[in-house]
Amino acid sequence: MRKKHLAIGAVLAAGALMLAGCSGSSGSSDDSTDGKGKTLTLWHYEGEDSAMGKAWNEAIKEFESETGAKVKFEAKAFEQIRSTASQVLNSNQAPDILEYNKGNATAGLLASQGLLTNLDDAVKKYGWDKKLSSSLQTTAKYDDKGIMGSGSWYGVPNYGEYVEVYYNKDMFAKYGVEVPKTFDDLVKAMQTFKDNGVTPLAESAAEYPLGQLWYQLALTKADRKWVDDYQLYKGKVNWQGSELSYATKTVDDWVQKGYISKDASGLKAEDAGTSFIAGKYPIFFSGSWWYGRFQTEIKDYQWGTFLFPGAKLSPGSAGNMWVIPENAKNKGLAEKFIDITMTPKIQAMIGNNGGVPVAAKTSDITDEKSKELIANFNTLTGEDGIAFYPDWPTPTFYDQLNAGLQELINGTKDPAAVNKELGSEYQDGVDQITNQ
């Protein structure tokens, strides 16, 4: 989720724990939706004031009213769930339902260990597959090795996320810059800001923002086959090919031209985001997870968003998922709760509070800025433009990509050398996964 994409790779080192095959049954747990006298134990890590937190609180009320069951909600820290999931879900302390991070090394790993319930029957029963585009379904399905994109359903996302361009409307107006419609327009806009002594891009190379910009640049030269090769190991990735060579060379060029500050080498995502909030930079390329915060914290200027110009593919995915542990005692009730979070009412609450719903009715979204956020997401999903995130393919690639881009900014390695090293690290990680 959002800033936490690194967790996609963080626990695959535990792959030695994998059990043979995936569980496809619901065991002896109760599949009934009659909740009288029952308690559903639910874990998630969303803030109470976040879009999802607000919507899911309402979903709990709806669920209790419809089923007669009570919900025992336990707030957990993201890292707490990530680091203990295998142990807890393999015990009698497992909750009935929890929010969990999507991807090979997290939900995929647990599915391959037989710790998550196969949801194929529930998907058919409730029609969740009809509410999720094919690209959003990718992270909900896992094969017997825990690799996403095929196999059975082991989770259901009810919100989405993607990366877009945030811009300071006041700074654009001050320097006579129009919203770019093409990639060349974007470059001209950045040059105009630089000519006026303003560094255009709020950036961070110590954490994810620059890696996502690098990936977006590659995506401007890529197609869906390339994404499938990079993300799903369907073909060999050429690290000296046009897509990745262009991305790395362009980042280097933008550093040399002053579009990206060399100080970004040591900055974190929070530094870049708060600098944009403070009005120090006119452009910030980052995720929809910043949207609600910007709505709350930007007081001194007008801001807006647009999709990266000249690209049909952009970083993004379905959000983190509801999963049901194999050891859950109330599986039927857990499925019912998931379905409630997919209803128009709850989806609209996500959308009107700065989140990105996956199944909301456009007419139910009343907040103007939220309409813009959701319209951009719908444009991407409508074009099959969701391309996941650059660090997803291997357990360690998040840190390796950040390190490589830091070396690029610092000038200790040229683009060709950076790509050579990243390509070697990427392939080593892919080989470890696919040869298990």
From TrEMBL:
<dbReference type="InterPro" id="IPR050490">
    <property type="entry name" value="Bact_solute-bd_prot1"/>
</dbReference>
<keyword id="KW-0732">Signal</keyword>
<dbReference type="InterPro" id="IPR006059">
    <property type="entry name" value="SBP"/>
</dbReference>
<protein>
    <submittedName>
        <fullName>Extracellular solute-binding protein</fullName>
    </submittedName>
</protein>
<dbReference type="Pfam" id="PF01547">
    <property type="entry name" value="SBP_bac_1"/>
</dbReference>
<feature type="signal peptide">
    <location>
        <begin position="1"/>
        <end position="28"/>
    </location>
</feature>
